[in-house]
TrEMBL record, chains A, B:
Superkingdom of source: Bacteria
Listed PROSITE patterns: FTHFS_2
UniProt-annotated binding residues for ATP: 67-74
A UniProt-annotated Pfam family: FTHFS
Gene3D superfamilies assigned: Domain 2, N(10)-formyltetrahydrofolate synthetase (3.30.1510.10), Formyltetrahydrofolate synthetase, domain 3 (3.10.410.10), P-loop containing nucleotide triphosphate hydrolases (3.40.50.300)
SUPFAM superfamilies per the UniProt record, alphabetical: P-loop containing nucleoside triphosphate hydrolases (SSF52540)
The protein's Enzyme Commission number: 6.3.4.3
Catalytic reaction(s) noted: (6S)-5,6,7,8-tetrahydrofolate + formate + ATP = (6R)-10-formyltetrahydrofolate + ADP + phosphate
InterPro entries according to UniProt: Formate_THF_ligase, Formate_THF_ligase_CS, P-loop_NTPase
Organism: Roseibaca calidilacus
HAMAP family: FTHFS
Family assignment from sequence similarity: Belongs to the formate--tetrahydrofolate ligase family.
Record protein name field: Formate--tetrahydrofolate ligase
Single GO MF descriptor: formate-tetrahydrofolate ligase activity
Amino acid sequence: MSFKTDIEIAREAQKRPIQEIGAKLDIPTEHLLPFGHDKAKVSQEFVAQARAAKRGKLILVTAINPTPAGEGKTTTTVGLGDGLNAIGKKAAICIREASLGPNFGMKGGAAGGGMAQVVPMEDMNLHFTGDFHAITSAHNLLSAMIDNHIYWGNALDIDERRIVWRRVMDMNDRALRDMVVSLGGVSNGFPRQTGFDITVASEVMAILCLAADLDDLQRRLGDIVVAYTREKKAITCRDIGAEGAMTVLLKDAMQPNLVQTLENNPAFVHGGPFANIAHGCNSVVATQTALGLADYVVTEAGFGADLGAEKFFDIKCRKAGLAPSVAVIVATVRAMKMNGGVAKADLGSENVSAVEKGCPNLGRHIENVKGFGVPVVVAINHFHSDTEAEVQAVKDYVAEQGAEAILCRHWAEGSKGVTELATRVAELADADQAQFAPLYPDEMPLFDKIQTIARRIYRADDVLADDKIRAQLKEWEAAGYGNLPICMAKTQYSFTTDPTRRGAPTGHSVPVREVRLSAGAGFIVVICGEIMTMPGLPRKPAAESIRFNEEGLIEGLF
Amino acid sequence: MSFKTDIEIAREAQKRPIQEIGAKLDIPTEHLLPFGHDKAKVSQEFVAQARAAKRGKLILVTAINPTPAGEGKTTTTVGLGDGLNAIGKKAAICIREASLGPNFGMKGGAAGGGMAQVVPMEDMNLHFTGDFHAITSAHNLLSAMIDNHIYWGNALDIDERRIVWRRVMDMNDRALRDMVVSLGGVSNGFPRQTGFDITVASEVMAILCLAADLDDLQRRLGDIVVAYTREKKAITCRDIGAEGAMTVLLKDAMQPNLVQTLENNPAFVHGGPFANIAHGCNSVVATQTALGLADYVVTEAGFGADLGAEKFFDIKCRKAGLAPSVAVIVATVRAMKMNGGVAKADLGSENVSAVEKGCPNLGRHIENVKGFGVPVVVAINHFHSDTEAEVQAVKDYVAEQGAEAILCRHWAEGSKGVTELATRVAELADADQAQFAPLYPDEMPLFDKIQTIARRIYRADDVLADDKIRAQLKEWEAAGYGNLPICMAKTQYSFTTDPTRRGAPTGHSVPVREVRLSAGAGFIVVICGEIMTMPGLPRKPAAESIRFNEEGLIEGLF
């Protein structure tokens, strides 16, 4: 077992040139656009060709509701990808890119952990291949063009109070949340109140992650609703005339990034939308490219299965025509104990009854995911303090639910520790048992879709929404947006909207605070509770400790 | 002669893989960090080694005061570099990177023109290798940390009215010039007035372009003065604790970018500080790297010689220990005619007397540049409407000034059209005649330095500055900043501060409106007239026309 830190392990990685990694997926060198020696983008031309192949099986890694104990969803995604390769399968993984801004607040992190990581870690926590910067530029170009349109006469008759398109920056900067711009007189425009969100919250990010290709990207960008007139007529990005230039700015960002795991297996790392006000999965383009090149593609969805898997199925898979073959639900003994009421400080002691008491959280996720027609395997991500009796308790519980739980040691051992899971997942995928169907049909009324998610997934009694919200949904239906799926934004820590309610609660209701239209991304965001779209820095930000040490290594970032 | 557009020519370029271009300068493949197949960064390790060699001769390309007729300074820089290679010399060029934001207002442009260009043109007008995005991030991290410091108790006792560090964005967005941030209540901080500049105006940009290496970069970033206390004590970036993280963000951006000319010769394109509130030259690191690898390095400075060459000599060369061997002053017959009073519409007709009347502008630049101890050659950048008599008039005038003017046809013919200039420049450089010395010594009082520039370069009678400005300069001298050079910010169109006064005016004075301390970059900015640090978009922004056409080519950007 390794007790080195993630960054120590990552720095010792025996990376292969990215062309060799590409060759494992038969990507010709001329279609790999290198960024240094260990990162590359796959060319747009090759992506178009690869996407058409559709050879691979799609495996979703999701999890129980997150707890402070940590579940290791990305670690398991990486480990399973390595495990599949280790048992002789041609497999690739697809995960999200990291946001730069938050790294200066709290420490940044690995993609994965222990012996199951994607590298290069430093670059992935810094500018990587510039995708998020391109998204920031494209977003803010539209913002500048809106104010510029008003400055030069406002021919579209935009109501300056009803501009819904803000600006973005990939930085935790609370001072920019709420501001009055265009001060200083005639030459600076018309003063109005607005603000910045963090880049990952941009609708452009969600669009980039859902668009099939550059044409679809441009169409979706054009569809963004940026403002309303006094008569509440929607003004789109297309009305402003920004979608062409935004597409040009995003041409490289649309090409998926290829990197490698510690075991030199291919990993696509592309896109990173918020998992609350957006759908929280890597790009459709990356997933489809991987499915065209590999026999098994392991990907993950944000947060727990109630949010992440539901959106993965109901937004990403529905819209991209993807059909997952297997879902892996990651759980840990420690997280089961926390769900069973144990405090974080006491997680080190054996407590089988707490494990048993916490398991219903896992059980409900199993039932929910199966409800989408996708076979489930539970991965118990091993921690050194886990006892055999605790592990057995989880296995027994899962068996009672008609599924199988497999202990995995990829964190400590890499692919060697995850061959049993890999073998079982490959068997299930090859058996073609999945009969995937989304939770609700496109044509269901918007409010009914929300109720369906709340009742079937969260097991709430009802949805609480005042007349204004219901009327807004009706307005959007009248305007032709009724066929869009729902993107729920609620706490990830509970099935309910109360982050403190662990386990598998019932008898609760889901209050809707606000609804937002993401017409370009193609979903209706339903906000239940406080959602922060521009984080702040803590009292002692990580940035104060980040620097090059005397050996020229980055300190403080991890 | 070619009548294709620059972009048409650039798209037909027979580019060689960037590794081949690097090989021309003996850069090993492992030290070339590729960005796609036609761009690369030179590794920090190799740069450190290359800089020590100091083998090459440095050739500055500067110009007369710019006119709407266009002079072709970058075109001549590129052409001369190709010309030197064509006559068998090992030569490289060094130029600035383009700013992204302005391309969405007016059309972006080539680096060079006609048959004397640097490619890939699209990438160089878009995100290139991400340097400017990294600068934006580093700048705005410091901004966020300042507001965060105040939010958490303001232990440094920063006077919120005296924060001089703004935010930046690489976008023309006038709405962000002047704003009130931190609205919305307790959790968003203390409301205060501030704004955004465009990224190229960032002091971080100037610092990156003057820093010798990562250590020097970090030291300079730490020196930035960001605010003052109520007692007017300066608060630096180091006090905020941001310089380490900013350096980490800039580690890749500090590595110079290598691309190629249409004739497959090496071109370093790195950094792009404003030529008014900053010094307007490419990075010291790129220039020194090129000087370590090539026998001749052709570089350019922003605007005309009165601003660009003066800052190149007095800021960049002084601080980096560079000693230019030759200066090329670019002039055109058309620009001479405009200086002689001809309107732009009438430039097509022969007018020898107007050429003669305009030549004193050129003459004064020749005299000024010679005053720095650097031999001068004039390059007459040929335009198809130039007549022999007009060209001869320029040549005769220059000969009277004790210099030589050489007609160059690199725009139409590439290196073939510039062999005479290349041969003469190489001869002058090899003769080692230069006895470079900056205009004023470090220890001269700040106001005397301003007067020296105004009298000796602009030929003004005097400098007008009110007591407040003189007192500010004295304060900075007392604080230890008295040894810094001056960075003049005035109109580039005239030797005077009045943009309409062409030719070689005398009898004028230089009114100083404002002085600013760039303690990290290491100069005092002296502002004479209006300087815009955040441009706006025009009524019909170029962005509205930018898009991919049906052939997948970018339209509207050029």
